[in-house]
Amino acid sequence: MAEEYKIDVVKTENSRLERTSMENLSFGKMFTDHMLVADYANGKWEKVQILPYGPITLDPAATVFHYGQEIFEGIKAFHNNDGNDYVFRPDMNWKRFNISATGLCMPEVPEEIFIGGLKKLIEVDRGWIPTAPEHSLYIRPFMIATQAFLGVHPAKEYKFIIILSPSGPYFGKPAAIRIERHFTRSAKGGVGYSKNGGNYASSLKAVEKAEKDGYDQVLWTEAPEHKNIQEVGAMNVMFVLGDKIVTPELDGTILAGVTRDSIITVLNDWGLTVEERPISVDELIAAHQNGTFREAFGTGTAAVISPIGKLELSDDLVIEFDVEKFDIAKKLKATLDDIRLGRVADTHNWLMKV
User: Fold this and answer.
1) Is it the case that residue 329 has pLDDT exceeding 80?
2) Mean pLDDT, range 98-127, rounded to an integer
């Protein structure tokens, strides 16, 4: 690692690990002893440190509070069957993080800080990687604008931070999903392709309304006509229609998911037909009517595969799926789990040893 990115480590004097149960963990509610912090000022990254996990101090006028310059990523580390620890495809997350950064006029984070810092932080907090089934160490890199000023233009100062969260399953049951025809997650020309906080904040009202009506999440449709599918909640979405798997194309309005890419690769390995293209609500309704709508599921780092058990496509059409009969979704989850845990060969070199 270049000397300018030397990572200083300050360890906590009061570790919480021995007092913490690593069984039956909730998702994203517990954090490890340390975090990585790097500052950007005067056009360069500096002061890359691993510090005890805790609050950070920011000026009340920091740009992130007023104009939303913020991006993040989600990655997972696993304790493998060979006794070692691995992170799943962090190179893709690093590249996507910098695509998000460029889109929001933020500085790119060098690989030595993002990947090198991630590896060093896990090395320090390795004992926090859970080994229970369906558990993992969730890794959250993020960057915020810290320059103190009130004015709508890009900041010149930033913090890049990585925190770690030992976590259990994201969803514990099949999801109930409602079509969204009023609120909009993202539109062409916007930043729907990036992982920024604004995309998620703007989704909260739609989800709140759906939850009041007994649903878990919404199936986003694109503005202004609300005819074509985008994502399901905060995940990419896939449908098994007849003998093919279809998913919305990457048109700038949805996130280029790492799990999405991994699934498409696995499906191609199996010789199955995958179509990345526009998918209309009307096409899904027609597929249901002619009996070819076999499976629906979300894909993402947190949930991996989230089967959809109930899907409202219109005011008078609610589809109930028997997720126990989901052959493709079930096989995909098992395959990705097998790769991550070392039960099958990692033929695509997706695992990075830490």
Assistant:
1) yes
2) 97
